Amino acid sequence: MKKIILFFKNHPILKHLIFIGLVFVALVWIVLHGLDIYTRHGESVTVPDVKRMQAEDAKALFSRYRLRSEVIDSVYVDNIPRGAVVEQIPRENSSVKENRIVFLTINSNLPRKVTVPDVRDMSYRQAVAILEGIGLSQPEIEYVASEYKDLVLDVVYNGVSVEKGLKLPVSSRLKLFVGNGTAEIIEDSIIMSEDSVGEEWME
């Protein structure tokens, strides 16, 4: 031991180099060990399925899995409870690191509203396509006497004619009054009957 101490006393530079090397190794170990703890290297959890759960209940469940959640958007889906989770990212059964944020889309408490376009004087097929294209339910069709077959004559909601620019919930169901193409035929039949009566009277 005395020889070692004497050696380092006679070679101070070497002593300092060895000391620096030991400090460097210790620092590297501390950094790597700390990084491993920070990133939870090798530790992961499976994301649970929280669809149709209320956002607060989903948050509590994620907490038990050492995960976090954040609501980032809302949509309106008619057959899902209000405030319930509609979509989650990452998806259920995904393997993620602990403390990961799961982003949630929830069902809105109020249905989204849309501006009803004016589909009068269009063919009913075109009108239906336009209305469904903006998210409205398939409208009810009622045929009425008109010489214009399959032409939309009026658009009604709850018994009232819809004005252009009216905003309605997407869950609303409109009623279209569509021509059946029979008015002209009926009118012609009446005229022919009147002519026949006139001819008989002249005789």
TrEMBL record:
It comes from Coprobacter fastidiosus NSB1 = JCM 33896. Residues 42-108, 110-180 form the PASTA domain. CDD domains: PASTA_pknB (cd06577). The chain crosses the membrane at residues 12-32. This is PASTA domain-containing protein. The keyword Acyltransferase does not apply. InterPro entries: PASTA_dom (IPR005543). The keyword Transmembrane helix applies. Gene3D superfamilies: 3.30.10.20. Keywords: Membrane, Transmembrane, Transmembrane helix.
